[in-house]
């Protein structure tokens, strides 16, 4: 099939967005490719389509477990064979997945970057028929990027195992310096291609408010702008507080953060996607992989760490191409907090070493042991055990992670999984000899297709009802079947994970940490914070131009609808009796909605001034377009 036929068959689209088709063509020609597409630009299709067209398997490297699971789920719904390997899976489960990638018909395998250096993965990779390496969130490979992750530096090494296989790198936010770093670190071959889609989002109005009453301003925006919204805050406690403020004001809102039980997270996410909740208040844990096109506003209460992270989160608004708003609400305390957080992110090296030793002791790891092991991790209990301050400890753990010693993952719900590990003769003998356990294996094989080939997710409540047992009774019998080596049973998990990438290091040195590199990253982090502060304090330059120029995109045109441009336009309108135009528009639209063509014809003022006024009033939320594509007054 052609690329377009694959797109139509599996996704139902009739055409690609620019420059998806060019990127796919470059990959099919065997060229290394860098795709810089803004949030919502359709990055995943750029590697998924060629993966289905080429023989073999596409290896997708991604740092986000939740996103990997989400992608695999969506692909399987489209009857595309996909799988993933990540922290929290058992060794046996990983074995099965990797064997299926060698002998089965798996088309896409998602792996976390730290997996690439493990012996088990590299050994199996040499036996796979690899068609493409796709590196998602590729900015993580650069120390100039806003989310540097050292395991990404290992990616280039796997090229030697399949030297002829093309590499595609994808990111939604990278400066020219980061782009160059990506191609260099991934050892792109001569003739590689770079595709950059403009970072401009002409349908989004970027706004910044230095306001002491942030909650009041938030309520005002929610009342003026209709439709779904996301409100980002800096900590978990604030998510609940802001959600309650919105609820008391009559806004259908709820809160979301990584510390909630997975069932609650899923239920709230679905309620928001389906429109039962209008506004979701969240930490930055929310939004990755969610494709809701009709988000009308994204509001940050407080300051993001960098323009990269802000642009990515703000870009979740207006994916349907209709008018949307991205606002930052901040005050002096937020400015001080951002400056202070940069300092706190890099605690003294001696404290970092102490936290590492405490972590190793927490899991009773002997010197030289622990490499490749994953553990459930409760940071509250860890800090309590060793009398550590949680925030400083978290920042120290991030440095330890950035130095490639460990990997931290947020809680990701893993459903209970089973796989039949015996042969059919053993199953038959079980059916004859054990009437208590046989109905369970029969129910698994009847209700969960593929249980002989790979781990299948089971619903313990439904399975228990099928065999007339309580859930607790079922779990005990599943454990009994596992001991008899009839099945392999993995109970559910819903806790953060820590994985040790290297054996426990001696405390006599600096744990192999690059102290100079840590100091460098501190400078980069400070520079990014200054860029964020310039953006919000700026009172002169078009906000979209500030963003575009930050990403090294030359722009000489003002957007015309950010708060800076609107104020400039309003000032210009004042000299042409703006108040008279304002009242005339209001009077006409209160009587009857009019189209954008009809309205200027009914006005005394010139067309140009009327259109300026219409744009300004639309951005203020005072007029809007109804379903009949006519302008109506909202108040």
Keywords:
alpha/beta, Rossmann fold, 5 domains, Arc Repressor Mutant, subunit A
Rg over alpha carbons: 27 Å
Spatial arrangement of strands, main beta sheet: 3-4-2-5-6-1-7
Low-confidence regions: none
Biggest β-sheet description: 7 strands, parallel
CATH class of the largest domain: Alpha Beta
Count of discrete alpha- or pi-helical segments spanning 4 or more residues: 25
Q: Which band does the percent of strand residues land in?
A: 5-15%
Helicity level: 40-55%
Count the E strands.
21
Number of domains: 5
CATH third-tier fold name of the largest domain: Rossmann fold
Mean pLDDT: 88
* CATH homologous superfamily title of the largest domain: P-loop containing nucleotide triphosphate hydrolases
Q: What is the CA-CA span between the terminal residues?
A: 54 Å
Please describe what this structure looks like.
- This protein is α/β, with parallel strands linked by helices and 635 residues long.
- It folds into 5 domains: 3-196, 3-Layer(aba) Sandwich (Rossmann fold), CATH 3.40.50.300; 204-330, 3-Layer(aba) Sandwich (Rossmann fold), CATH 3.40.50; 340-412 and 495-525, Arc Repressor Mutant, subunit A; 417-490, Orthogonal Bundle (Arc Repressor Mutant, subunit A); 576-633, Arc Repressor Mutant, subunit A (Orthogonal Bundle).
- The strands form 5 sheets. A 7-stranded parallel sheet has the order 3-4-2-5-6-1-7, with helices on both faces. Strands 8-13-12-9-11-10 form a 6-stranded parallel sheet, sandwiched between helices.
């Amino acid at each position: 099939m052609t690329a377009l036929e694959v797109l139509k068959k599996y996704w139902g689209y009739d055409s690609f967005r620019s420059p998806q088709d060019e990127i796919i063509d470059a990959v099919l020609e065997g060229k290394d490719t860098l795709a810089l597409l803004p949030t919502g630009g359709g990055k995943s299709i750029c590697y998924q389509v060629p993966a289905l067209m080429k023989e073999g398997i596409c290896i997708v490297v991604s740092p986000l477990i939740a996103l990997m699971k989400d992608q695999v789920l969506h692909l399987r719904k489209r009857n595309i064979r996909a799988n993933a390997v990540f922290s929290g899976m058992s060794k046996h489960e990983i074995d099965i997945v990797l064997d299926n990638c060698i002998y089965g018909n798996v088309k896409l395998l998602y792996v976390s970057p730290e997996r690439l250096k493990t012996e088990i993965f590299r050994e199996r990779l040499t036996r796979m028929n690899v068609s493409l390496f796709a590196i998602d969130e590729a900015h993580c490979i650069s120390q100039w990027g806003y989310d540097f992750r050292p395991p990404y530096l290992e990616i280039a090494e796997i090229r030697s195992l399949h030297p002829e296989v093309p590499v595609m790198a994808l990111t939604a936010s990278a400066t020219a310096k980061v782009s160059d770093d990506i191609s260099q670190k991934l050892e792109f071959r001569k003739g590689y291609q770079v595709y950059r889609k403009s970072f401009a989002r002409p349908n989004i109005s970027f706004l910044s408010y230095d306001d002491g009453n942030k909650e009041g301003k938030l309520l005002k925006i929610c009342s003026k702008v209709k439709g779904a919204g996301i409100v980002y805050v800096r900590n978990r406690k604030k998510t609940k507080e802001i959600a309650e403020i919105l609820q008391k004001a009559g806004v259908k809102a709820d809160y979301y953060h990584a510390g909630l039980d997975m069932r609650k997270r899923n239920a709230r996410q679905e309620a928001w996607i389906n429109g039962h909740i209008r506004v979701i208040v969240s930490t930055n844990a929310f939004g990755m992989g969610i494709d809701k096109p009709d988000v009308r506003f994204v509001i940050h209460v407080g300051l993001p760490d960098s323009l990269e992270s802000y642009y990515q989160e703000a870009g979740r608004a207006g994916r349907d191409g209709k008018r949307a708003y991205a606002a930052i609400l901040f005050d002096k305390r937020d400015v001080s907090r951002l400056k202070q957080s940069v300092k706190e992110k890099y605690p003294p090296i001696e404290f970092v070493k102490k936290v590492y030793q405490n972590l190793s002791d927490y899991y009773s790891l002997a010197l030289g042991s622990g490499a490749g092991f994953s553990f459930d991790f409760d940071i509250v209990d860890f800090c309590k055990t060793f009398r550590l301050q949680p925030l400083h400890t978290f920042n120290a753990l991030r440095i330890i992670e950035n130095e490639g010693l460990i990997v931290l993952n947020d809680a990701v719900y893993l459903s209970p999984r089973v796989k039949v590990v015996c042969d059919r003769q053993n199953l038959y003998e079980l059916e004859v000899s054990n009437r208590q356990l046989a109905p369970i294996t029969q129910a698994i094989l009847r209700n969960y297709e593929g249980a002989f080939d790979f781990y299948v997710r089971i619903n313990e409540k439904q399975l228990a009802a099928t065999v007339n047992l309580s859930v607790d009774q079922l779990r005990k019998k599943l454990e009994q079947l596992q001991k008899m080596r009839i099945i392999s049973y993995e109970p559910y998990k819903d806790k953060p994970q820590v994985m040790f990438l290297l054996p426990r290091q001696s405390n006599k040195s600096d744990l192999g940490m690059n102290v100079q590199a840590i100091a460098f990253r501190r400078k980069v982090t400070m520079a990014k914070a200054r860029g964020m502060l310039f953006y919000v304090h700026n009172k002169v330059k078009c906000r979209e131009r500030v963003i575009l120029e930050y990403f090294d995109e030359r722009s000489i045109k003002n957007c015309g609808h950010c708060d800076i441009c609107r104020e400039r336009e309003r000032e210009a309108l004042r000299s042409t009796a703006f108040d008279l135009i304002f009242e005339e528009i209001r009077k006409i639209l209160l009587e009857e909605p009019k189209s954008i063509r009809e309205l200027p014809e009914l006005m005394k003022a010139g067309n140009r001034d009327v259109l300026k006024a219409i744009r300004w009033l639309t951005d203020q939320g005072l007029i809007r377009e109804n379903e009949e594509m006519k302008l109506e007054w909202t108040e």
